[in-house]
Design brief:
This protein has 2 domains: about 270 residues, no CATH class; about 90 residues, Thrombin, subunit H. The N and C termini lie close together (about 10 Å). By secondary structure, the protein is α+β, with helices and mostly antiparallel strands.
């Protein structure tokens, strides 16, 4: 595996930003795969950006997408025209870019049927279209059928939501698979901290909870967060979310979903996920200090596994994190650099983060090439 090269730039004119990146990258001898992430201020120009990068570097394969922000080593670009680009020289048979998988897991098998290493692939980087309502189920089905551990995220944008998989596409999942000859280590960090106990749903209808542990759902919510009145609950509601523990996880992982609404007259709580009686649930709070502590935990664990400075990395973090949670100064990316070292890293701010076979929220997902 040859060296990874990183470039990132911000400019009102996309051509200047692309040229700056090409100049920073220098000779691309031996590079076989490129990553390109652009902010949504440049979403309409992504096709031109991809054409320039391919022609100026001669790198044949590209993956990437659009985000409200993009990230590079130690740096966040949020709500400004910017791009982050990384090149790597993986052996041509060690990865395969795959086009949009929109409906069935079998589409991925069909797209990689002629790839000799397909049966050895265990890791993938995937970008998803948030407009596809079946994205979570499709991701789970693809991961299970193909035995792939995915990292990535859903595009986020106030404009176009294109993905790059050698060309522009949208509507489903796309990205790249990697064979076992490409060593990686991955980690997940949460942006919320649980409050109260894990409860069991005893009555519900789709996404509306009526009873938790045989207690009116609204009463359970107020008890767990320590709210003594509906007025107090309303004042604190913006920071309160719902956590769904991941079955079988040995690290206490949970998926966070929004608290959609309450009905004080009927003691109902609506959440941003369909659930069933018997499912487990807990309430959680968005907390900057807890998020920084959990980020530190993840980075220390990855540092032990990496055994040294990684060759490169990709980072996919929620649009509600970064400056919206930690404040200005690229705090989140600086923490990664300070703990793991100075290495090429790219990624973007997502509308949902992907780790293994699940779609998370308010999280950061980091994958290191070792």
């Amino acid at each position: 595996m040859s060296a990874f090269r990183l470039a990132h730039a911000s400019a009102e004119n996309w051509g200047r930003a692309a040229k700056s990146c090409v100049d920073q990258l220098g000779p691309a001898d031996g590079a076989t795969l490129g990553f390109v992430y652009v902010t949504d201020r440049l979403s309409a120009d992504l096709d031109g950006i991809l054409t320039v990068l391919r022609e100026m570097t001669s790198v044949p394969h590209w993956i990437g997408t659009v985000g409200l922000g993009v990230v590079a080593t130690g740096r966040e670009y949020f709500d400004e025209p910017a791009m982050a680009v990384m090149l790597c020289g993986l052996p041509s048979g060690s990865f395969r870019v795959f086009p949009t998988v929109a409906k069935k897991a079998s589409e991925l098998r069909a797209a990689t049927a002629d790839w000799k290493e397909a049966g050895q692939a265990t890791f993938g980087i995937v970008h998803g279209d948030p407009r596809n309502p079946a994205a979570p189920e499709l991701l789970a089905a693809v991961a299970k059928e193909c035995g792939i551990f995915f990292v990535g995220g859903l595009s986020s944008s106030r404009g176009g939501l294109a993905q790059v998989a050698d060309k522009l596409m949208d509507g489903g999942l796309s990205g790249a698979l990697f064979s076992g000859s490409v060593p990686v280590a991955t980690g997940l960090t949460q942006g919320c901290s649980p409050v109260g106990p894990v409860r069991r749903i005893t009555a519900c209808q789709e996404n509306v909870l009526s009873q938790l542990d045989d207690m009116p759902a609204l009463d359970a919510l107020m008890k767990d967060i320590g709210a003594s009145s509906i007025e107090e609950l309303s004042r604190r509601a913006a920071n309160i979310h719902v956590a769904l523990p991941v079955s079988g996880s040995d690290t206490g992982d949970y998926m966070v979903r929004n608290l959609v609404g309450i009905d004080p007259d009927k003691d109902l709580v609506a959440i941003g996920e369909r659930v069933s009686p018997g499912d487990r649930i807990m309430f959680c709070r968005r907390d900057k200090d807890a998020a920084r502590e959990d980020l530190s935990r993840m980075l220390k664990a990855l540092k032990r596994r990496a055994g040294g400075v990684p060759k490169a990395g990709v980072y996919y973090t929620c649009v509600a994190r970064g400056p919206n949670l930690f404040g200005p100064g690229s705090v989140e990316l600086a923490a990664i650099r300070d703990e793991l070292g100075d290495f090429p890293l790219v990624g973007f701010f997502c509308n949902g983060e992907i780790s293994n076979d699940r779609l998370y929220g308010y999280t950061g997902v980091l994958a290191l090439f070792l």
